[in-house]
Amino acid sequence: MKFAGAVGFETLIEVRPSNWQSIITERKYRGDVNRCSRRLQSTDAVTDNITVSNEIEILADAFAFENFSNIKYVVWMGTKWKVNTITVEPPKLILEIGGVYNGNSGPPVDS
Length: 111
Prior knowledge:
Blueprint: E1 2-16, E2 19-35, E3 38-41, E4 49-52, E5 54-59, H1 62-66, E6 71-76, E7 79-89, E8 92-100
């Protein structure tokens, strides 16, 4: 399965001494979905939590390699998913995603 979507990178900037702000930038990447699976976690809540255990391999540019430790999420199938693990295998980055990402996000990139 092919992947084409946005990857969210977090940058921290100091707005005042000892006061930091998180800025998220989305960039578009292409690649492959190597593994696609999901797990339903039962909870005491009204709805169960959905967790995926997918592996997305992107063809990385210089920016992605320099900032791979700042990757927070991947937009896949219309949802932002947390990136749990990143493996560097030039010229690729392999991103393992998990639960739904609920943190700050950047403006969407044009399709």
